[in-house]
Amino acid sequence: MFSLASIITKLARQKNTSPHLGAVINAYSATSILYSPLTLMGVATTLYGLWGEKMIHQWLPWFTFPMLFGCMILFILIMMVLFYKVIIPSQVAFSVQQQYKHRNPLVTDMKVVLKKLEKLDDIEKRLKNLEKKSG
Q1: DSSP characters for 3-48?
Q2: What's the pTM?
Q3: What one-character-per-residue DSSP string does 63-74 give?
Q4: How many Cβ atoms are within 10 Å of 38's Cβ, its own excluded?
Q5: b/e per residue, 126-135, with b = 16+ CB within 10 A?
Q6: How big is the CA angle at 62 (ends 61 and 67), to the nearest 5 degrees?
Q7: pLDDT in tens, 80-129
């Protein structure tokens, strides 16, 4: 039957697909920087106004909405540092691995260049052997 390793291997295998889906997701992700702060402010205002203020004031009666907003900004800054130090390097490593694996024209060109270099090395060795024999 199927072993767990073979199932995982089949699930991990990726498809060579059209770049169009990636382009749409990339463009959407790039524009998220514009609408994320607005969404965050809207959600924070709504939650604080609906039930957040009452719940927070039970434990912290001095806590105000600007303080909540400041805490949210501080949390975002901490997460930005975490992303910069840990997550982005991991994403770049994964991206480079994917770019190397899936239809990268530079990899194809490099394979051609390496084959030509091997031929040149072979020719150079033959010339040196001929020089030794004749000289």
Answers
A1: -HHHHHHHHHPPP---HHHHHHHHHHHHHHHHHHHHHHHHHHHHHI
A2: 0.52
A3: --HHHHHHHHHH
A4: 9
A5: eeeeeeeeee
A6: 120
A7: 888 888 888 888 888 888 888 877 888 888 889 999 999 988 888 888 88
